[in-house]
Specification:
The structure is a single chain. With about 325 residues, the chain is mainly β. Helices cover about 0% and strands about 55% of the residues. The strands form 6 sheets. The chain has an 8-stranded mixed β-sheet. A 4-stranded antiparallel β-sheet has the order 2-3-4-5. The longest helix is centred in the N-terminal third of the chain and has 4 residues, at about 20.
Length: about 325
């Protein structure tokens, strides 16, 4: 299989305290309000940085909130500079200064599960996954909570129980209607759910099979990616059209490699994906695929001494991020 080698060119680097210990959490990379965010923990504080549209720097906005005991909390920035928090037994809305605006208590999550939260498409409510009020209820519940008061506006049952959850907002016009929700249950079963939310109505639509969660990456056109848990298949969906493009690792990658990490759109024409022999290991290479057909185009080569790891964040503007402890590096192809 022939493909090109494309050099990576460093454009910026910046520190985000607490990032090294936070990487790998389901809220460490977020898409919110039309932008990518990175979330870190620094002692009893949550630090979040919004990625800049200027390739010559990393962050354009940074926020910090006091949040004691956040080990099992899932957090999200909300409009106005506040922080939504899905904790073990409650969902809370924190003001920019850390004061709690409201709290919504719920039965505690078991140790192997946790909820998540995200602003709804209107920016006036918080979507949150919570435990059912009664222990006899079989599934978790998705709620719409008024951002100002915490009052419940709508509710819908999810197809999972004892799950782990993560939200991403699409980029572009699709963000005005829908939100991505990954709902993992057990080792391999992962529902990919598109959530349509209005003030008094919630609707969920399942995408793909039981083992292909969203990668968190999308294009303004509405296209998004899912990746099979074991890395054997990467799929592009072209919403609102029903079409999809499937890339099987055994067909499009050389040497028995599989897809790893969270592949994403580098720009309209390219997808950046970590590939390697084992989806659970860090050792990998970075590949460029055609965004339209998901076929291998090139391998990215880095300057000597640069570690190549599975955790990358393509930003959709031709640049991507890599991470080394608390250091964030931004790259483009040379």
């Amino acid at each position: 299989m022939e493909y090109d080698a494309v050099p990576a060119e460093l454009t910026a680097a910046q520190e985000l305290p607490g990032l090294g210990s936070a990487l790998g959490r389901l809220d460490s990379f977020l898409v919110r309000d039309g932008a990518h965010w990175i979330v870190a923990r620094d002692g009893a504080r949550v630090e979040a940085g919004r990625l800049s549209g200027d390739a010559g720097t990393v962050f354009d906005i940074r926020h910090g909130w006091p949040l004691p005991g956040p080990d099992r909390a899932y957090v999200t920035p909300v409009p106005g500079g506040g922080l939504g928090v899905s904790d073990v037994d409650s969902v809370t809305l924190h003001e920019a200064d850390g004061n709690v605006r409201w709290a919504f208590p719920h039965p505690a999550w078991p140790s192997e599960a946790h909820g998540a939260c995200v602003p709804d498409p209107t920016g006036t409510a918080l979507l949150a996954v919570v435990r059912p009020a009664l222990g006899t209820d079989p599934t978790e519940v998705l709620l719409t909570l008024d951002l100002a008061t915490g009052a419940v506006q709508a509710t819908v049952e999810l197809p999972t129980r004892r799950g782990t959850y993560e939200f991403q907002q699409p980029l572009g016009p699709a963000a005005a209607q829908e939100v991505f929700l990954n709902a993992a249950q057990g080792q391999e079963e992962a529902y990919s759910l598109l959530v349509t939310a209005t003030r008094e109505h919630l609707e969920i639509t399942r995408v793909g099979g039981y083992d292909e969660p969203f990668t968190g990456s999308s294009l303004p056109s509405g296209a998004f990616l899912t990746l099979a848990v074991a890395g054997e298949q990467l799929t592009r969906y072209d919403a609102p059209a029903p079409g999809r493009t499937v890339a099987k690792a055994a067909v499009v990658l050389p040497d028995g490699l599989v897809f790893m990490g969270q592949p994403g759109f580098l720009d309209e024409g390219r997808v950046l994906a970590a590939v390697g022999e084992d989806p659970w290991e860090e050792e990998c290479r970075h590949a460029l695929l055609g965004a339209d057909d998901l076929r291998l185009r090139a391998e990215v080569t880095y300057p000597p001494g640069t570690g190549v790891k599975t955790r990358t964040l393509p930003l959709g503007d031709g640049t991507w991020l890599t991470f080394d402890d608390d250091t964030v590096r931004r790259w483009r192809t040379g």
